[in-house]
């Protein structure tokens, strides 16, 4: 495994105490090929929509691996991390931050990430949004306002936009500069901002753009304040102790995928190989939030 710094206490402090529970990792000798490949998908949007959007991928994996595939959407990020750490899942689609946390608890490896533009690195962005009537035109205007985040272990709807406020506007929730609320998912963040239940929020830029395109939210009511820098895209990960032939088939099933029917729900042109080192930027970002780990124990 590529050497890199350990996950910091400040980063771990972003999570609920559920993430700090001890778990049994999947380390050890290679396991037998599973009868059914259990594939966990991020609960970052409505669960039924997540399952529906990934049905073409399920069919593709069943054909390529010649085994049954079960799609799983957990109740939140922490339960997904815990299930992976206890070997109850073989494959998982993590956000960058939830991957970093899971990798500390389980013997897993990232192997593929979405390539959204052909020929470019597999990256994505977060976006800081605001209710149009809130008068927020810059990050500095968030002072004294209410901000909605998604899950505490979400990269693009918590870690990145929260770090943007801290780095670029010197606004920190632990200093009382603004109030925050966690609403669970990206779509819930957008709707909270649109409905006026929060003045602003942070979410994935691709999800924001899709919600606007589908008419779920109105871009004149939920406006973009600032986009983040690009970060390594959500990684597909697998248990390291899967049989080598299964791991090889999994890599090929993603990295050689060209079927538009499978790729269309992802708005992607394909998948590119990623490694653990690609997520060091997330590890480096977390300490900027300067949150005390003891607050979460």
From TrEMBL:
Q: Name one GO cellular component term.
A: ATP-binding cassette (ABC) transporter complex
Q: Which InterPro entries match?
A: PhnD
Q: Name one Pfam family in it.
A: Phosphonate-bd
Gene Ontology biological process terms in this record: transmembrane transport
Top-rank taxon, per record: Bacteria
Q: Where is the signal peptide?
A: 1-32
Q: Which UniProt keywords apply?
A: Signal
Question: Does Signal appear among the keywords?
Answer: yes
The answer to keyword Signal applying to this record is: yes
Q: Which family does it belong to?
A: Belongs to the phosphate/phosphite/phosphonate binding protein family.
According to UniProt, the name of this protein is Phosphate/phosphite/phosphonate ABC transporter substrate-binding protein
Q: What organism does the UniProt record list as the source?
A: Nesterenkonia sphaerica
Q: What is the lineage of its organism?
A: Bacteria, Bacillati, Actinomycetota, Actinomycetes, Micrococcales
